């Protein structure tokens, strides 16, 4: 396989396809953090675009549109990280890149103009308005802090003006490694409120005098798995521990009156992908209650009013939103759909008015659009589809929900993309999601790397959600604990069997791919089954022993494997693909990012080594400037093109 793939037919086809979907040159193709006020004319969001070419990467800018219909406006020229609208809708707080690479900038915007700005040292990850609108809190990651896997899974680097030969030095010491809370009265300079050894992952105002924080006493990415809920006094900085969870926490949101904190508690595998139980802590009584959310695994929450919590999440194939009334202890669903989903990484929704909500929606064959829910009905506010997107997507098949029975009788759900005009068995690509505590949804095809291009070439794409996936409740997610590569692998294989039995898949032409946990499974499944003609693990784990000792998240494998990384046997050996792959010769293309510390590049090297020793063709592709799951551009395009080439070489047409 050539190092420079840019002149290959596969790369040209990939670039042409994604050029039509993403329209480089300034078109806003994606969005997040959509927000607005019921009495305001405009909605605000962070718009994503390729300002120049696909090769130069994505830019994020502050944008707005008219709520009742109109064009999109880009309001700034700085890389925009976070936005937050004041409760009265009058002032928008914006966190963006500053003039100094080591310091971000917080800006205040009125309806028509930028009115104030201050710098904070580090990278802003969250901002929130106090209930009285007088102050902001800002969660700031130090200049060398770890990033979560969904954001690249690497450690940020402190800028240096020294010569290139100077070594990289890793240490557990230094303020630049920690996440801290700052407050700003919107007049003077921001002030740091918390300090090491408190590491704040998320925070929210709880009344005007205290801050609810998800925090740990260590700064490493893996310490997030053990984080608890605390209360920080704004005047003194004193910290009071409130709740130590059995599992993990996310989306802490304090009530305006300071009387309670809502948060999500769940068994999780990734920071930023918390999906589970809506939980409320009463600060007066100390009582912790779990809300009944109508079978929806909750992924985002916001206070709609002093007594109502708005939430979004997943239930089976559906994405859903609703409100939970604290006074009546009852939830009401406001919208659900399997035809459309919302949110960037997980379902996400923003309340507006007494019962409405805003979110960025999409589906496999529908480009993202800004949406408002009114009386349970979705209304398109503005489409982000590029001019040639619909035409480019028309040959990429259609998605549909599927279900089947696992060997133990448990119902398993997933999605299938069937190629246009298919009437009989086709080659099948099994694409396994990351996590494992995550799920495939009805997401836009541009998020699926090579899958839509393969569908246009006659492949069926299988997107299974085996046990461990979200949207099926706590017990289903927890079923993967201590058994990664066990029953979940059988769930996937039985799904393949079901598609073969339906006459949709050719059992001689089946390939498997995936990133992170999906990368592990892509390396693992071919060592356990003769179903596969080719495998393409991306950011995999090959050896759980070395993974534990080199990853930024060693806590992950201890939780998921329920075994000791110091023992000479057990799951650390029996579930390591590199220890078994040599027994089954399956052509393997392994890809990884050199900056990845969630699944370090050595894991891909071990998978590649084992594949070669099996006697199978194998290629290892390492991108020097990419992180976890290879989501940056142009690496994303290059990896998609290589998948097309590899499958064309190793999954032969039927005779």
TrEMBL record:
Keywords: Aminopeptidase, Hydrolase, Protease
InterPro entries given in the database record: 6-blade_b-propeller_TolB-like, AB_hydrolase_fold, Peptidase_S9_cat
GO terms, biological process: proteolysis
Domain Peptidase S9 prolyl oligopeptidase catalytic per the UniProt entry, residue ranges: 451-651
Name of one Pfam family that matches: Peptidase_S9
Gene Ontology molecular function: aminopeptidase activity; serine-type endopeptidase activity
PANTHER family registered for this protein in UniProt: DIPEPTIDYL PEPTIDASE FAMILY MEMBER 6, SERINE PEPTIDASE S9 FAMILY MEMBER
UniProt name for this protein: Dipeptidyl aminopeptidase/acylaminoacyl peptidase
Lineage summary: Bacteria, Pseudomonadati, Pseudomonadota, Alphaproteobacteria, Hyphomicrobiales
